[in-house]
Amino acid sequence: MLYLDASALMKRYYEEKGSRAVSARFETGEPIFTSVLSYGEVHAAMGRKFRSDEANVQGLQRRREAFTNDWLFGLSKVDLNVNTMSELPRLVEQYDLRAGDAIHLSAAFWLKDTVRLRQGSAPSDEIVEFGVADRRLSKIAALCGLRVFNPEDSS
Q1: What are 109-147's pLDDT values in tens digits?
Q2: What's the domain range around 22?
Q3: 3-state SS assignment for residue 56
Q4: At what angle do helices 99-119 and 37-51 cross, to 10 degrees?
Q5: Which of 22, 23, 65, 97 is the most buried (most CB within 10 A)?
């Protein structure tokens, strides 16, 4: 089970270091989660790339369609609410995190706890990995005890 923040999810739509690793995870059919925050972050990143001439109009449209398809059919969304952000105050107290990064980490912890509670006492191999392409956030996630998938390390 994989939770992707927007930095890792963007690699699905632009060919860059780590893109193959992210696409490979989608191809496995494993459950892939992201926060609803990613919807805005991915569209904003695509807009930045378009404005900086990294994509033409057709390329932008193709990538938006691919993202919309994933959003509707390939991703499970974690809503933002008091439950999914319950770890946020502790995280920002302990680590120098941007708000979006703290939200993604907190949502990943919520997902990990939900999987653990769902399993109860039954042993399971189901592990939640935190997918991130930001080295700083990757280090913080590992310090917090999350298993980290950095697609840039897989290329």
Answers
A1: 999 998 888 766 555 567 899 999 999 999 999 999 999
A2: 2-153
A3: coil
A4: 140
A5: 22
